[in-house]
Amino acid sequence: MKKLALLLILAVTIIGCSLGDDDGSSNIGYELAVINDIEVPEYFEVNETYEIDVTFTLPSACHKQLTPRSLDVRKGGSGPEERSNIYIGAVTSYNTSQDVCVEEDSSVVLERTESFSLNITENEEYTFYLWVGQNTAGEPEWRTVSVPVGAPEESN
């Protein structure tokens, strides 16, 4: 009798457990948002830290900004020249099982602004590569913004 009760409890436990992903996490897709603008100073000073504002547009009203941050900011490499190349993308998420997206919803603000801190360690011009989409071959396209290091020379 004890074995039957144990088997019954075991069977109920196994049947009661879901083997599928009901939390919706498997229905999440990710997509990059177009970077519209970056606010940078006229020039940088070495050993200073700057707060850089980046504005991007969500692909649709169904896309959400990842929390707490959507910006993906990466240096181009580990060498001095590569460290002054900064690549910026904005990663968004959306529900892949949602069939209808209401982009005309005026209450949804698609343009977002986030910021990141950048410590200037190199005495070379910094170039920001802003992701703006893909070409017909599926390769990323970037808009570049360059900022010199050190105050510009004044000419008489």
Automatic annotation (TrEMBL):
Q: What does the organism's lineage look like at the top? A: Bacteria, Pseudomonadati, Bacteroidota, Flavobacteriia, Flavobacteriales
Keyword terms: Signal
PROSITE patterns the UniProt entry points to: PROKAR_LIPOPROTEIN
Q: What species does this protein belong to?
A: Salegentibacter chungangensis
Q: What is this protein called?
A: Fibronectin type-III domain-containing protein
Where does the signal sequence lie?
1-20
